[in-house]
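[stage:ingest] chain + small molecule (zinc ion)
[stage:ingest] validated
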Amino acid sequence: MQTLIKNAHVISPGVEIKKANVVVSKGKIKSVTAEPAEGRFDTVVDVKGKYVVPGFIDVHLHGACGYDVCDEDSPEAIEKIAEAKLAEGCTTFLPTTLTVAHKTLLTAAKHLAAYQRNPRFAKAPGLHLEGPFINPACCGAQNPAFVRKPDIREVMKIAKVAPVLQVSYAPETKGGAEFAAACIANGIVPSCGHTGATLAQFMPAYENGLRHMTHFCNQMTKLHHREIGMVGAGFLIDDLDTEVICDRIHLCDDMLRLVFAKRPLEHIQMITDSLRCSHLPDGYAFEMGGLKVLLKGGEARLVEGGNLAGSTLWMNKGLKNIRDVTGLPLKDLIRVTSWNQAIGLGLGKTLGKVEKGYVADLAVLDAKTFDVCAVFLDGEFRPQGKDAV
Ligand SMILES: [Zn+2]
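[stage:predict] done
[stage:export] tokens:
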């Protein structure tokens, strides 16, 4: 099986080729060239100058289309979310849990394991546990009733059911530094999130290998000129991989400009942090971890207190947002939507680039609107949306 994608405007980290021919064979990219492609092809897809970018990788999202990763009564939740993510051009994602009871986390892992046996849409290699080991003073929209102290044994019980690839937790809590080391020893990315840490309280976890920040700026200590907090840490320490929600709501445009101007692009990971209301119309009301949330004016906020609860962002729209806000070239920006995440997960040699030898996980985007017109998943052509190619 050999596929030719012709008239592709290829954008990959550090690479931009107009009118490229991309040859896909056995699920992998065989060649990317501006020259005529030679060989026999079973399928030829003319994308007519549309962008062909690495399939997006979202390491932080809770739900879509009315489903949440933590829904105990919906074994189909992960598959429904995976289908919605594929429509955003997202080919790999980490289903992300909330601060909930241990048995709920086990059920989410069970549902993921079932999806992994028969993955029909975006790939879901493992869970991201957001909490329950967070700072109760920085819950945001997480339910403080379920907060507990960092415990690698609880994580490993869940990992017996389905892989756990990332844990967001507050490093200042008792045992926080040791927890970072224990995660790394088990191949899990420890991430600093929902945290009230000072820089000094954070450093022991950093010295133990922690290099990731959960939704940078949101639910972490702010920058003050006598205590720079976790926001200051993100600007001071280059090699922290900072997740950024690029919906222009969680961070204002000036903050997005500041982050993309001052932080190295190779250490920024765009996330959606999307909730079950993503892909649904305004006015949708729902409960999250026992708390009431309302989607109004595109913003999902707690009914009580008004905290932002997460986003309705799509990965393709996030890419357009940061291009519009920062004006940076797409061949530079494109690494924050896939390749950085792939490197963080230890998959940087196979995922996140439109280059020879990489897995043919690709998104085809309209060059003006960034709407997703098609996806290639392991080289399989999947038309998407109303303007499908
Ligand atoms: Zn989240």
